[in-house]
């Protein structure tokens, strides 16, 4: 359920939109550039999942900067100084005496200034994929190119930004993200805000930060690079460095469980459950569906007998469940000789599929009876309902296609729909085009890809 938006008024009279969710230590999630809080709930692959998972143990406060999203749009001043007024307005409106700041790229100047000015109020800083000086970013070819695009072509700028987040074969999710950027901020405001973000340098303030600080960064990010995070962590007394997998600027993408685990550990809270099963039953949630199936299971039972075949199935269940747990998969149900699982991250779903096949390959090297598993994946918005036993289940076209794709695989293969390949573009997975195939129950042929997972491939 989307949170209810409220408003605070800044010292200079601007209305700042915010919402709160959950209970516990207040965690103020500062705005990222051109990313409004409502769009996080509209995008199918987001649905506010990052905030929802944080709100399991924290009181999350999220707000929009002036000129963007649900905050007052008709403003002239979007300078870094005005952003300080936005933060102060929300904190004062809620009467927060102690708070932790989650600081994405672009917010570091405001956050460091606030932490230095109010050391008794800020009990912690979590810096996410940022840099101490804008000059570090402006020197990179990527950011120079983005600056030039913003000057000359607003639509192309937003499309390119979306492609940088989703990968250059991001398809429909990237297109939707670009649309939300254009809807949430005008070209003139974006240009002025981008200019303001290119003028900060907090290097001299970093040694004055007195609160516990976690500096988080993606290992695969190019701009800013992990070296920027290491430099910041070295400059803040007692700061911790936390590197997580992936290359996306959005914390909800790729290794979300790793991001949340580092945050909760830093705040000395209970580790989060790995991709909670309740997420599978959220209405309209964008999920990646994975099916496994043992090839020739009926023949195995006929050849081995019921008892020996059941032992083999137990080993299949153990290996599959270990892979699901390790990669944040939610087991929806078992199907006798297979599994249906759901993932919030397409990357984690593919990593789980590969890890599962590798585990079975290792098992088969020494086993008298090999277990050959076929795996199929698809992504979409399944229908969530309770089954007759009251347990959460998923239905619909996205689920049916995943099952049909799995049935087309051979033992030891991973087949995926084209949407899965597009969602993980740029993530170093290797695919082989299997062409268009007729699937039972689907009118049009479906293009499938094989995931190349063995060490040889």
SSE layout:
Blueprint: E1 6-9, E2 15-21, E3 25-29, H1 39-42, H2 49-54, E4 58-63, H3 80-94, E5 99-103, H4 108-117, E6 122-128, H5 134-138, H6 141-152, H7 154-166, H8 171-184, H9 187-197, E7 213-218, H10 226-235, E8 240-244, H11 256-266, E9 287-294, H12 297-304, H13 306-326, E10 330-334, E11 338-343, H14 346-366, E12 373-380, E13 383-386, E14 392-395, H15 397-408, E15 414-417, H16 418-423, E16 431-437, E17 446-451
Parallel strand pairs: 3-4, 3-5, 5-6, 6-7, 7-8, 12-15
Antiparallel strand pairs: 1-2, 2-4, 9-11, 9-12, 10-11, 13-14, 15-17, 16-17
Helix pairs in contact: 3-4, 6-7, 7-8, 12-13, 13-14
What features would you describe in this structure?
This protein is α/β, with parallel strands linked by helices and 457 residues long. The chain folds into two domains: 6-148 and 187-272, Rossmann fold; 278-451, Alpha-Beta Plaits, CATH 3.30.70.1230. The chain is built from 16 helices and 17 strands. It has an eight-stranded mixed beta sheet with strand order 1-2-4-3-5-6-7-8, sandwiched between helices. Strands 10-11-9-12-15-17-16 form a seven-stranded mixed beta sheet, sandwiched between helices. The protein has a two-stranded antiparallel sheet with strand order 13-14. The longest helix is centred in the last third of the chain and has 21 residues, at 306-326. The two termini are 44 Å apart.
CATH topology (level 3) name of the largest domain: Rossmann fold
User: What would CATH call the architecture of the largest domain?
Assistant: 3-Layer(aba) Sandwich
What is the count of structural domains?
2
Mean pLDDT: 84
Output the radius of gyration: 24 Å
Amount of beta strand? 15-25%
Q: Please provide the count of β strands.
A: 17
Overall SS class: alpha/beta
CATH superfamily of the largest domain: Alpha/Beta hydrolase fold, catalytic domain
Shape: elongated
Please write the CATH class name of the largest domain: Alpha Beta
- The end-to-end distance, rounded to whole angstroms, is 44 Å
The largest β sheet comes out as: 8 strands, mixed
Question: Order of strands in the sheet with the most strands?
Answer: 1-2-4-3-5-6-7-8
